[in-house]
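FAQ

Q: What does a record look like?
A: Structure on top, sequence underneath. For example:
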């Protein structure tokens, strides 16, 4: 890699900021009515008060901590961090509610992770939702990125679809960083990632997204790709990548556009936010949005005070 470890970590932090803000804003609309969401999207009126981040950010914080401490994914320590910092109020999925206490009690994470869904592992979107900072960190080394993305997913989402989705988001985040300052057609941006996604439904859906003609409506995309309503990688990642390509150069527009698609809104916005921030930089995120998001904790950042 050409840059220093400090620069790699800076890139990860940029994606972490974008991910956490998108997650915290999107969390307001996770269970809201379509009318309420439509009003906020149409007027681009952000929620009032403090924005609390969800499990998406809390697990991304463990990714960032892992990179800060080890410079790569240390699976044993990542599993322990996930379990240690588990907070029920953050909106975790059912599998993590089982994962955290078992790992804390001494069970090995690999046994816990592989035991779900009949021994096939989880193919939910949780591996992908937290991985954008990894794409920033390893933006100069795609081979290392893909290996570490796989390792990060295996800890909780060992199914090939979960791993494929995680790799896809990580690679797109890396491309977003490396393409800063360049104008990229939406389809071309999605096509960058296709050679790196393992054969899977995630790949097939992403290929469909890359084939969309200019002017494809949001509703058409949702009808064809899904929007995370089933909370699976294959139902989420192609839609997220399409939204990212459509609004890569404007963080605020990207978040509102993604949110308007409904579905798993906080997770969709977390992924899009982490990717788009890599392209726009933190300066592309509205300052008042960063201020509204609750401060990020010191345990992950290794700083005297949390971000905020």
């Amino acid at each position: 890699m050409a840059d220093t470890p400090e620069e790699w970590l800076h890139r990860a932090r940029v994606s972490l900021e974008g991910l956490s803000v998108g997650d915290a804003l999107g969390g307001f609309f996770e269970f809201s009515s379509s009318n309420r969401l439509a009003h906020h999207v149409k007027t681009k009126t952000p929620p009032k008060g403090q924005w609390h981040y969800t499990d998406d950010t809390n697990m991304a914080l463990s990714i960032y901590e892992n990179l800060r401490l080890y410079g790569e994914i240390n699976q044993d320590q990542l599993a322990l961090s996930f379990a240690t910092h588990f907070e029920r109020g953050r909106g975790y999925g059912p599998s993590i509610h089982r994962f955290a206490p078992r790992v804390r009690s001494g069970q090995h994470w690999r046994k816990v992770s592989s035991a779900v869904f009949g021994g096939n592992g989880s193919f939910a979107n949780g591996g992908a939702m937290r991985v954008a900072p990894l794409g920033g960190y390893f933006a100069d080394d795609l081979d290392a990125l893909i290996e570490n993305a796989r390792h990060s997913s295996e800890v909780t989402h060992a199914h090939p679809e979960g791993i494929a989705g995680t790799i896809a988001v990580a690679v797109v985040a890396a491309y977003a960083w490396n393409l800063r300052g360049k104008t990229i057609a939406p389809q071309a941006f999605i096509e960058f990632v296709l050679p790196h996604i393992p054969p899977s439904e995630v790949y097939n859906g992403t290929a469909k997204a890359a084939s969309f003609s200019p002017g494809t409506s949001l509703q058409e995309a949702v009808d064809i790709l899904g929007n995370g309503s089933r909370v699976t990688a294959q139902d989420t990642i192609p839609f997220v990548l399409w939204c990212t390509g459509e609004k890569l150069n404007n963080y605020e527009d990207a978040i509102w556009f993604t949110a308007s698609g409904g579905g798993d809104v906080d997770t969709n916005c977390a992924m899009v936010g982490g990717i788009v921030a890599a392209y726009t930089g933190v300066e592309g995120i509205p300052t008042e949005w960063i201020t509204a998001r609750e401060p990020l904790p010191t345990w992950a950042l290794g700083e005297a005070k949390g971000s905020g």
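Q: Is there anything notable about this one?
A: The CA atoms of residues 144 and 278 lie 18 Å apart.
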